[in-house]
Amino acid sequence: MKKLFFALMAVATMTLASCLGKTETPGTGDPQAEAPSEVKDLPTALGNLLKNGDGEGLFALVGNIQEKALSFIKDNPQKAQEYLQTAQQFLKDNAAKISEVVGKIANSDMAERAQELIKSVSEQPVDQLLGLVGIAGDQLNDAAGAANDAVEGAVEGAVDAAGNAVDAAKEAVGNAVEGAKDAAGQAVEGAKKAANDAVDNAAEAAKKAVGGLLGE
User: Fold this and answer.
1) At what angle do helices 42-51 and 77-93 cross, to 10 degrees?
2) CA dihedral 94, 99, 100, 104 (to 10 degrees)
3) Residue 28 region, left (φ>0) first, then alpha (ψ -120 to 50), else beta?
4) What is the pLDDT along the chain (216 residues), one digit of tens a residue?
5) Taking the CB of residue 96, how many other CB atoms lie within 10 A of it?
6) Which residue in 137, 136, 135, 128 sits closest to 16, CA to CA?
7) What crossing angle do the helices spanning 77-93 and 133-214 adopt, rounded to 10°?
8) What are the DSSP calls for 36-104, one per residue?
9) Minimal CA–CA distance to 87: which of 39, 128, 51?
């Protein structure tokens, strides 16, 4: 499953790049075009290029931001989403200025591709830009469902076990009560018999004593 996931991630990354016209993206060797690793550094990186009027650098950086976000999917999908959301917010907030700067790229074809890429990254839903988030989400949902089923099964098992224990305890108490009743009944019967025997013996002794007095 992991091998399939990584293979799909690689295919999706290449497909995403080709669909957005990221081939021959300029400035990939420019340190300023390298996407930062931390979300908080994105606005500064984009802002510096925009302030300097570097349209080609913006083109390259936006493409690299997309790839950087994809690289986070394996270990930190939440960061991947936050990364793109932060980039999108900057692109939307500065859309007019970015369009002006990118429109000044000398190569008209490059300028057009840059506009298309920046528009795509700023407007598309983050899940679509990441592509594989849907796959990861399905796997997480499956795992969550399995975990939920396991928890429900464990709870039901515990409830059944508790119910059985209660029934067993009730039965044990019932048996103990019945045993106590039987023992008490036997004790009462024994006491009655002992009392009757004592009365009979006393009566017999009295008869003998009276007979002796009468000279019988």
Assistant:
1) 30
2) 140
3) alpha
4) 543 443 344 344 444 444 444 434 444 445 557 888 899 999 999 999 999 999 999 999 998 998 899 899 888 999 999 999 999 999 999 999 999 999 999 999 999 999 999 998 989 898 888 874 344 445 445 544 665 576 577 657 766 776 787 687 678 767 766 776 777 677 667 767 776 676 567 556 656 655 555 555
5) 8
6) 128
7) 140
8) PSSGGGHHHHHHHHHHTT-HHHHHHHHHHHHHHHHHTTTT-HHHHHHHHHHHHHHHHHTHHHHHHHHHT
9) 39
> Are 62 and 117 within 8 A, CB to CB?
yes
Is 0.85 topped by the overall pTM? no
Q: What are phi and psi of 167, to 5 degrees?
A: -60, -40
The tokens of 164 are what? 């059985």
Residue type, 20: L
